[in-house]
């Protein structure tokens, strides 16, 4: 496979492979051994959906040293994780909605791991076999609530607070990729996944020793330094090397 997306036309929802601007419909189980139509399906009239439907979203905090420094928090000795509501997911092109305009709400560009096989208690060395691919994401955060509470799930789980997509790239090495966020065309975050404190394979291993992961589950790997507030009318673009850009506006 390569870049896999999920699309809708009318009542019809389907997966497809995206190659050089062409879309080839997938037949069978996307996490199994699917086949693809030889004739492309026109993009016209299609709506791009979130690329997978996870049973859960697991976020990882303070996983870039520079971001930990800018928050004034110590580096974690093991991955800091929490759950985000799946109802917070929105696809590429959808609007992020700020529920409390008087609160500070921040963007956070992240690379997301997509699980491809049921996994429990796997080693880092074996973790790659259970990963379906990678996609772009944001972990939008209400800082006012986050700073007032001892856990972060509510501050990061409002509807529209997890933009994801547009596609899952299934053939990419996640360990040395540029990750950037542009706000209204201005570069705000600029780092590399090589700077992750706990890399993707280590995260899958750690999480799977505590929580069974299922096909389609999402792990948000953390955000680098440069996070900042969003306002209505903003255009936010996450660019990760080798992945399709994720673009959302703010309402």
UniProtKB/TrEMBL annotation:
Residues 56-250 form the Fumarylacetoacetase-like C-terminal domain. It is an enzyme of class 4 (lyase). Its EC number is 4.1.1.68. Signal peptide: none annotated. Keywords: Lyase, Metal-binding. GO terms for molecular function: 5-oxopent-3-ene-1,2,5-tricarboxylate decarboxylase activity; acetylpyruvate hydrolase activity; isomerase activity; metal ion binding. GO terms for biological process: carboxylic acid metabolic process. Pfam families: FAA_hydrolase. The keyword ATP-binding does not apply. Belongs to the FAH family. This is 5-oxopent-3-ene-1,2,5-tricarboxylate decarboxylase. It comes from Pedosphaera parvula (strain Ellin514). The lineage of its organism: Bacteria, Pseudomonadati, Verrucomicrobiota, Pedosphaerae, Pedosphaerales.
